[in-house]
Design goal:
alpha+beta; 6-stranded mixed sheet; 3-stranded antiparallel sheet; 16% helix; disordered N terminus
Length: 201
């Protein structure tokens, strides 16, 4: 009887988590002035190139190819070899991250002219991917989850390095972050509702 009731529960290792196609970044709307809000988190925005990073799928976490796609659907990561190893920073078999590509100058500020030269295939300073959202993880869409849960999972799976970091978020104090960003020459800040789902485009 015991033999008849036994079940094989071994996972199918051949099955790889799927990655979605056709995603586009969620676009911000400009605000007339900075504001404080307990319903929002605020993040610095460096003014780089908005992009999605597709990692995997792979048989094991930390493996897999990396593809970086801009808002127009161009594969802009193909000429940025410093991003090719990003998978080792991601504790997942597959993931899609939303963020921006940034090349910085000697003062640590975004240099979009340098970024465009690098994307055009010219040599120059290293480009980094600054991640501020996690859209897909190990075959599961996270688009309907609230922002604060997506960010928690992003921090859990992302091990920062020179090529990729998670952008820090500050709760409630938008005016203070805006003032600090302006004083340091950072392009601006993003305000996002803590409970908002992700709406591509």
């Amino acid at each position: 009887m015991r033999d008849q009731l036994s079940l094989r529960l071994e996972p199918e290792l051949a099955t790889l988590p799927n990655l979605p196609e056709g995603l586009r970044p969620m676009r911000p709307k400009p605000a007339s002035e900075p504001f404080d809000s307990a319903a929002h988190v605020f993040e610095p925005w460096w003014g780089g190139l908005r992009a999605l990073a597709y990692v995997g799928p792979a048989d094991a976490a930390g493996d897999g190819d990396v593809r970086v796609v801009d808002e127009a659907g161009r594969d802009v990561g193909a000429r940025l070899p410093e991003l090719a190893g990003m998978a080792v920073r991601i504790a997942a078999r597959s993931a899609v991250l939303d963020g921006e590509l940034v090349a910085v100058d000697e003062a640590g500020l975004a240099d979009n002219a340098e970024l465009e030269r690098r994307i055009a295939g010219e040599p120059g300073r290293a480009v980094a991917f600054l991640a501020f959202d996690l859209l897909h993880l190990d075959g599961r869409s996270l688009l309907t989850q609230p922002l604060h849960r997506r960010r928690e999972q992003l921090k859990r799976i992302l091990h920062p390095g020179d090529e990729v970091v998670a952008v820090p978020a500050i709760a409630a104090e938008g005016r203070a972050l805006h003032a600090a960003a302006a004083a340091q020459g950072i392009a601006g800040i993003l305000a996002r509702q803590r409970t908002s789902p992700y709406l591509p485009g």
